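I am writing to request your help with a piece of structural work I have in hand. What I wish to show you is a protein chain and, alongside it, a tokenised description of its three-dimensional fold. Could you please explain, in whatever detail you think fit, how the structure tokens follow from the sequence? You will find the record immediately after this paragraph.
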Amino acid sequence: MKRILIAVALTTLFTACATVDDKSVAVTVKSLQHHNWELTHVDGNTITYPEKTQKPRLEIGENFTANGLAGCNNFFGQAELNESGEFRIDKMAITKKMCSPSEMGIEQVMAETLSSWSQIILTPENLTLKGENHELRLKLRDWM
């Protein structure tokens, strides 16, 4: 009887994990590496940019290094995935240029979310980071 209960429980657990989101991609170093994402939403709100403005972005490169544009300042550091599947950039460094108040607002949210452990959801088109205080959605914009 115990074996049957364990088998049913395990089957239910695996089925629940497999059906969380049909479009989601397994989050691994390999699935994140060598991609560039552009920020499109902060806390569910669409971000719009003036024409010819560089958009905040995150790029994961060789050796799982991370770099990008947080708002008007560039950042870099070492990307990490923990055992719980959360993402962060360890020892993130950021330049210190003068920025407009709107750029600084986005920059602070990006820096806070990227440098802290965040739940990560990956689809073929988007990367979502759900941090303690903010949620960032980025669209895949690989270099051509």
Summary: Residues 23-140 form a domain with the Lipocalin fold (CATH 2.40.128.270). The helical segments are 2-18, 29-32, 101-115. The CA atoms of residues 42 and 136 lie 5 Å apart.
